[in-house]
Description:
- By secondary structure, the protein is an alpha/beta fold.
- It has helices at residues 13-24, 54-63, 87-102, 104-117, 125-128, 146-164, 187-195, 231-239, 257-267, and strands at 4-8, 28-33, 46-49, 68-72, 121-122, 137-138, 170-174, 177-181, 211-214, 228-229, 244-248, 253-254, 270-274.
- Helix 1 links the parallel strand 1 and strand 2.
- Helix 3 (87-102) packs antiparallel against helix 4 (104-117) and helix 8 (231-239) runs parallel beside helix 9.
- The two termini are 34 Å apart.
- The mean pLDDT is 91.
Amino acid sequence: MEKLGLIAGGGALPVEIAQHCERSGRPLFVIRLKGFAGADLAPYAGAEVGLAELGKCLKALKRAGCRAICLAGNVARPDFSSLVPDLRGLMLLPKAVAAARKGDDALLRLLVDEFEKEGFAVEGAHEVMEDLSLPAGLLGARGPTDDDMADALRALDVARAIGRLDVGQAAVVAHGLVLAVEAQEGTDAMLARVADLPAHLRGKPGAGAGVLAKAPKPIQETRVDLPTIGVATVQGVARAGLAGIVGEAGRLLVLDREATLALADELGVFILGVEHDGT
């Protein structure tokens, strides 16, 4: 197995990947992004690197003998004027600013291209750890009603539509009405907004109505930034009075799967994977 360079932001995903590599015996080197990577990654061999220190990052990966990289975890869009780049980062900065104006996907594609130019194979989190992906069908004990399925399919249509505009990856639909779409605030904050809406628009805990859909942007590089769900997502869905979660099979990551499924069953939230239709 080729040594993996894990470029780690925040959240549970980089930790799951690091633990998987440890269990499977895959050699690992972790680039911990300053201000984002959590303390759980500190025990792993690696280096701490600033967002604009591309040269330092590349040198550390090559010195460690990494042949492949995986970008994983949450990284908020930076204030480019406050970054402190090294020489290689400074050379890339104008392109990064221009790409960022086109959207998050353009910026991520630029970063992927830079690593590939340096000879690294770029692996998606779902390629490193195959059992991360949502399978087709139900994942858990509860299934959707006919009304839930209608909301799920409409929510997926909306999520894909905003994805085509590089706005976000998630939408909430209840009773056929679009209650929210995700932008820069993220899924948890979007669900909190839904929870503040009048109860007749959605449902209530224990008697949910409405569905959260998450889908990758049709234009996006699927090796980075695939949508994710986890324990916090299930909690947010239940608090918002929604019935369930839907995503595209193989194109949604389920973090901390055992705990996520246990909580979904406990709270009566369904999780459903549907086949990607190519749109």
